[in-house]
Amino acid sequence: MAYYEIAQKVFDQEAEALAKVAEKLDQNFDQLVEQAAAVTGRIILIGTGKSQLIAEKIAASLSSIGSPSFAVDAGTAYHGDLGRVAADDLVLFVSNSGETQEVLQALFALQQIFPDQLQSVALTGNVNSTLAQNCQLVFDLGVTGEVDLTKMAPTASTTAVLAFGDALLVALEKQKNFSRREFAKYHPGGSIGKMLLQRVKHVMYTKVPYVNQDTSINEVIYTISNYGIGLTLVLEKVGGKIIGIVTDGDIRKKFLQVSSVKKSVAADYMTKGFISIDQNQRNQAAWKLMASHNISNLIVTGDQKEVVGVVTIHEVL
């Protein structure tokens, strides 16, 4: 069997396992969503080993939609990190067997610390386990078996927990009416923040190249190359009014159409007029405008409709 066929089989088996876990979800999931949305503290996940790594990812995802969350390793929890848990937190304990010693120790210790206040949830593959029997809310994420060759390495079981975390994330987004704009607030960096939060004036080039309509093509190419933004605006010979734009793409497209390249000037390659955007528009609007016109740059205008810069698709993405 080819290796890609093994990979396809793994995908099929894990997809089947997830479908069976999904069938076991019921109104308890609704209760968890309401608890998670109403919690005044944090959402804390406690696991160990591979379960801890999955818990870290779930916590990071929930935090990204404004639900403060973090994961605690069960081993270190029992040696001092239980102090990170407060009475108003919602605690999810992750253990496929439901009998992981470190996870159980953390659970019982927290029940002693918060005898009447602990909100405990079990994510387990064994609803008859010690963990399940001692948590207020229990989710059966059990799979029929792991998909690796030994049937022992956490594969389908950890995928089920990961998918459960994603489902909780999406349900909380729905409960909160969470929007893309709100998502961007928690992701001000990177491409997400740049696209949804920053405005064109934050990323535009403020040094704009200009040539006259009778500027030689050699000078036009030099100007475009010198400024490094792939274009130059073209001014009317008399009066200095902006009448068009020449991009490096225009030159490539029209080069063979010009009868005498040596004598050609900016006007021979120019596109009359230009597509512009206000400097206060968000980068997402700039990207959509470029996409709708199948172009890669925009002229940026100020409050008085004057040209104040140039923005390219590279700056808004």
UniProtKB/TrEMBL annotation:
Residue stretches making up the CBS domain: 204-264, 270-317
Keyword terms, alphabetized: CBS domain, Isomerase, Repeat
GO biological process, one term: carbohydrate derivative metabolic process
Domain SIS: 32-178
Positions in coiled-coil regions: none
Gene Ontology molecular functions: carbohydrate derivative binding; isomerase activity
Residues in the signal sequence: none
SUPFAM superfamilies: SIS domain
SMART domains in UniProt: CBS
UniProt record similarity statement: Belongs to the SIS family. GutQ/KpsF subfamily.
Protein name per UniProt: Sugar phosphate isomerase
Organism listed in the record: Liquorilactobacillus ghanensis DSM 18630
